[in-house]
Write a structure and sequence with these properties.
The complex is a heterodimer of chains A (about 290) and B (about 300). With about 290 residues, chain A is an alpha/beta fold. Chain A is built from 6 helices and 11 strands. Chain B is of the alpha+beta class and about 300 residues long. Classes of the chains: A alpha/beta (about 290), B alpha+beta (about 300).
Amino acid sequence: MASVTENELKSMTQEERVKALGMTSEQLTGRSMFMEFDPGETERFEYPWAPKVDFNKRTELDSDNMTSTEVNTEIRKLMNEGYGTIVLKNPRGKHSLAVGILSKLNLIIEGSTGYFGVGLLDGPNVRVNGRVGWSCGENMMSGTVLIEKNAGSTFGAAIRGGDLVCKGSVGSRTGIDMKGGTIIVGGDTGALSGFMMQRGRMIVCGNAGKNLGDSMYDGTIYVGGSIKSCGVDAVEAELTQVDKDWLERKLKLYGLLPSKGVDHFTKVVAGKMLWNYDNLEPTEKKLIL
Amino acid sequence: MCGIAGLIHRGKKSTVGSEMTQMLQALKHRGPDSTGYAVYGEAGGGLVMRLKIAEADDMDRGSGIYAELDRRINAVDGILKEHGVKVSKKEKVTDYAYRYEYTFTGDLGKLAEHVEEVEGAEILSIGKGLELIKDLGDAAVVSEAYGLKAFQGTHGIGHTRMATESDVDIRSAHPYWAFPYNDVSVVHNGQITNYWIMRRQMEKKGHRFTSNCDSELLAVYTAHNLSLGTSLEDSLRQSIGEIDGVFTYLVATKDQLGMAKDTMAAKPLVLYESDELIAMASEEVAIRAILPEEIDTSDPYDEEVRVWQA
């Protein structure tokens, strides 16, 4: 790092100061580190103790008079009996339904779930015919979750993998702290979506609220509608042909491809001006603080 | 954490007391300390006053408390008479809670202040439609004690409280009446971080506070704005800029129900709207308690303000 005097630093813009002090090692590229879910790699997604289920073996579970704990225990019991397709009826907005399923399963929830629904998943395919409350799909590792109606706030918080899809609109802080996977929103999303996002991709077909991608480290957000405002260190980037192809493929998969295509989408990435983990903290940093 | 709920029937009356009880009971886990209702019926042309003359734990002070309560309620009756209040009905609802139906044409603020000079007396509400009920315990307990099952009305708001900022007592329970404005009540879920600054400003303007609960500020703030001729919707919108913290709150008037959410949208609210009924609650499970069929609901966004007409 070239030596910089205090006077020189004072006359610089914030961006020039950061570069002069070696606090960023990367040019803005919009690059996103992500891994595609590969269904062929079964060994990566199956635990040795996972129950052997048959997708053609189907059963229904009426949760009307059951607690969330009883429902979750019953789902595990049915999986151990080999049921690969479970239809959950009358969830009536109960919280923490169908959480912690760590192996393959085809789960259909006929109705709406409350808070913390389908969290901590690793492998199952879930379809919710109704709406989901706050923190749906939190910490998902792999699999697919498809919500037919709206979702609450912190949708897909800290997910690591898989596809989390909401055909309606979602609340605030969607994909907060997400570290992989894909979140797809058919409608609008609220404020601070993608806050401190680290990896993965988020697609919002409608409008995004204020402070989109605030303090994001990496990852990519695509927005089809308007963006109220971008957050700190979230910047617009060029939508490349690779992006467009990926968007088309992904949105078509869930029946959410807009009739006018994807050319109008805005791509938002980390500006990486706050990104200095790989550098030794320069002593000069104190000068600009 | 606290749970809030509200519902409004468009153009018709329903058993709102019973409906609110079902909603609030479903939210019990969000706040088991106390439960409160502000329900709106019809008082037959006059005014309804809900009053408490002691806290629930005052009843543990021994048998002498009953004589003391008699003294207090007689003092209240004396003050009402002194102001020319024509009481048509007086009900003793619990040992320390009373309900009056009356007609009065004088200064309501002065009357309320005078009544509250009686030791332990606090007016919970005065209104042409509003009846504000709050006590310790869950919704089923409070509803049973205050006979809310049969209450007919157009709309209501309610609250289950988990005390975080002030004591577990009726004084700090929600809803709050927007003293001294007829029929205005508030429930709140959140924390107001500029409470003391705002409270001092309101006190300088002559408003009174009965508790140290930050939610009372919203009632006083709303009352202040309404006294200046501000509409409910404008008051709600203005509050988002002036009140700091994380909050979602509901305000009900004689024929309106409004909601406001802070800039961070950090406190939840789930909303159901149809042509006949609008219902909202901190959790969908409360709405499902009165609407078991499949319904479409949504989350209001940050800085969102909505007002519905009965």
